[in-house]
Amino acid sequence: MSYSYFLPRYASDMIKEQQQYKHLGLLLDKYIPKEAIEGEDKSRKGNWLREIATSYQPDTELIKASLARWQSYVNALHGQACHAKTDWRLIVGLGSNTALETGLTLHSLYGLPFIPGSALKGLTRAYAATEDTNMYLPNGKPSLKIETDPEDIQRIFGGEINKKEHAGSVIFFDAIVMGNFSLT
User: Fold this and answer.
1) How many other CB atoms sit within 10 Å of the CB of residue 78?
2) pLDDT-wise least confident of 8-22, 51-65, 119-133, 163-177
3) How many CA atoms lie within 13 A of 162 on its CB side?
4) Separation in Å, CA 106 to CA 25, 37, 89, 90
5) 19 pLDDT exceeds 60?
């Protein structure tokens, strides 16, 4: 289907000539066709999104290169990478504001889905504070607020120790896609 865009003609013509988009972030954030955001017929937006979901193919060479770059950062810092696999579908960033009314966290340079390091840090801190009984407060309950975290958790994740702000001792990088992913 041919779409029209809120862009200068030369840019719109370039988008129409592309057979396949490699940068999903640009496609979902900058190259949204008029038909997907105008009018009362919500099925047009859904049809456009379904078209993207069925036809989008990520740039595998870009994924491999970004993974190699990420691994070199970890190695340079003498860090430890951990690999994980989701049990089911995962999406991050649904609450962000976009013209499509539903967001998706995509890397600004690569246009690939990722999990921000800050989200991983928050998840890990919450797990350590609520699941590890060795980290419970003196009253035998888990810390539900960062301000009440035990000193060990604050040392790892950052916080206020002895009335001084303390940066965390662990660096959390973004989680990147390491294989095939699907938009459906």
Assistant:
1) 6
2) 8-22
3) 2
4) 6, 20, 16, 13
5) no
